[in-house]
Amino acid sequence: ITQTSLIAMKLFGKPLDKNSDQLPYVISASIDHLKKVDAYKLEGIFRISGRAVEVAQLKNQFDSGKKPDLDSFEPHVVATVFKQFFRELPVPLLTFEFYDCFLAAASVAKLNAE
Fold it and tell me: What's the predicted TM-score (pTM) here?
């Protein structure tokens, strides 16, 4: 495998494809798995991090183009990889272009709550 093909397979740290209506595999697989294991019932599923070694293993499996066996990882590991995917996007989902609009909307919501 060449360096160029490894970069082409990499999922983390790449921008989302604006022309695609499909979720990246790491997102859809993580969501499906977390729903399957009823992870919402686990304390701190998105607050408590998974073990760093296992997180790195799972992330590398996704980045190498493999479809990992998510059942072999604890739900907190899967949730941590899910969060890392979004953290590593070069352009955040809530884009810089609309940052001021998001702040204004939050201010209005806060005023309405008071």
Answer: 0.79
